[in-house]
Each structure stands twice: as structure tokens, then as C-alpha cells.
Amino acid sequence: MASYCIRSSLISFHLDILVNDTGIASGFNDFETLDIEAWQHIFDVNVFGTVCVTRAVIPFMKKPDLDASLI
Hints:
Layout: H1 2-12, E1 17-18, H2 36-61, E2 69-70
Parallel strand pairs: 1-2
């Protein structure tokens, strides 16, 4: 999904910076009682979402004609 979104965006836009600042904390009322499924969802979005988007962007940002930055 991330790769598709990046490729689709690059048809119309130039990419020279990625600020990968996404995360959720929904349902995070009580650390002791939050079920494992909720923890898994938070981890999937906050960690794997960041990894997937970053990995999808890296090949385009490594092109020699770009002065691109990952933050």
C-alpha cells in the first residue's frame, strides 16, 4: 500500500523530504488493562507504518539527482 501511494504521488509531485511523523494512541486509557489486540494495533500503526513508508520512499530518495532528506 505504501509503495503504491508513493509511486502514485510521484506522477504529479517531486519528492525531496519525508517527515515520517505518524502515530496513534487510541483506546489508551489504562496501561494495565489495555488488551493485547489494542497494543498490537498501536504497534502496527506506530512502528510498522513508519517502517513501510520509509522503505517505500528510500529508493526514490537515493537517486543521484536529488538532494533529499529523511527526517
